[in-house]
Amino acid sequence: MLKRLIWGFVLSISFSHVWAFRCDETTDVSIAECEALNAIYGPLGIAGSTLPQHMIDDWADPNHNTVCDTNDSNIGIECESFKIISLDLWSTDLSGIIPSEVGNLTNLRILDLSGNQLSGSITPKLSNLTNLTELNLIGNELSGSIPVELTDLTNLNELRLSFNKLSGSIPVELANLQNLENLGLTGNKLSGSIPPELGDLKNLIQLGLSFNQLSGFIPNELGNLTNLEQLYVHINQLSGSIPNELANLTNLRVLWLSANFLSGSIPNELGNLTSLEALDLHINELEGPIPVELGNLKNLYSLNLGSNELSGTIPVELSNLTNLESLSLENNNLIGNIPVELGNLPELYSVNLKNNGLTGTITNTFDNLTNLRFLNLRNNNLTGTIPTELGELYNLENLYLDNNNLSGFIPLELNNLINLRYLFLENNYLFGDFPDITSSEMPAGGSRIRIQNNCLEYNDDENVNLWVEERTTLETGLEAQQLDFDVCYEVFSQYDLIFYDGFEQ
Hints:
Blueprint: H1 2-16, H2 31-41, H3 53-60, E1 71-72, E2 75-80, E3 83-88, E4 95-97, E5 110-112, E6 117-120, E7 134-136, E8 141-144, E9 158-160, E10 165-168, E11 182-184, E12 189-192, E13 206-208, E14 213-216, E15 230-232, E16 237-240, E17 254-256, E18 261-264, E19 278-280, E20 285-288, E21 302-304, E22 309-312, E23 326-328, E24 333-337, E25 350-352, E26 357-359, E27 374-376, E28 398-400, E29 407-408, E30 422-424, E31 429-433, E32 449-450, E33 455-457, H4 462-469, H5 485-500
């Protein structure tokens, strides 16, 4: 019996020290902080994490009486003057919940638990961490509402709660965090309106509210955030017009308002945002012309106004955007010619003008854009021939000219496009032999080439025809040409009359 009692006592001692620093003899932090670390070891799933093994071993060693050496490079526990100031456990496969005992680490300045699989709600006890300057819980599975108590953390510079499953409204009280520079709530299930009070966060540099279910108007008060450099509110359910007040954000570099229900015109005043590098307004209900003032945005590298109801012509002033790399104006009601001046934008690698009512030719428009990889002009009313100069765009990977009124031969020079991956020319009035473009490294299979409903003929070289066949289907290849001979004859006659002044006799 005595032997059994002694063995039970030994077991109880052993289990009482499992997952525990030896806090009664700790030499580098207070007993209270040491005990707080012991209390969070189990709930955070430290034992099953990908933390360096020596850290896991130290944390679980009942004979280990130092805490501040439990770190590795930029991860783990950091101390200063016998106080724990940083708990950085990002992307270490933590699971479980955030225990309330974290709130006992009252000297923390940085708490980073991002990139894990933590679930449950955010404990209101984090409000005890009044010295905290950075709270990063990005990329977990946290749910419930954003605790109002977090607004007691008035020293916060960064509050990052993006990509979780948080719900409810954005607390108005966040406006109390006057030192906040980065507020990230992207990728949750937040609903309700954007609080106008966020406009009081005068030190804010980045505001991320995208990928939520927010509704209502964009508050005019956001125009008070004069230090703001990045504003992301895309993929919500916001409506109303774009506030003119956003033009006050002269430090703004990124403005993403896409995939909402915004209506009205694009404010001319956005042309005042001369620091802007990326403007994305696509997938809204915006109407009216493209403001010529956007040509003032000389630092812009990405302009996306696609999938709206914009009308009028493409402003020539866009050719002033000499740093522009991507231009997307697709799915609108734009008319007129494509400005040849766009060919003066040397950095362009992507141009998407599909699904508009553009007319005229594409001759001399894109000849000099040697960085171009993606050119999509499909579903317009373009006429004339395919310029031979397109064969000098050696980086081109995707060429979509289908569903226009193009005529003439497919240029042999397209054989120079060795990087070409997709070539869509269907539903035009192209004729002649399909040229040898087998120098392209285009993979075989599927509908890499779409040339149906033209007046094209087989090449004299069967190897070329076989190469084309491997990249088309019966519905998209040389077998699927215009069946009406009179149509093809009329097209060829018109072409010959224009370019050769009638058939040779």
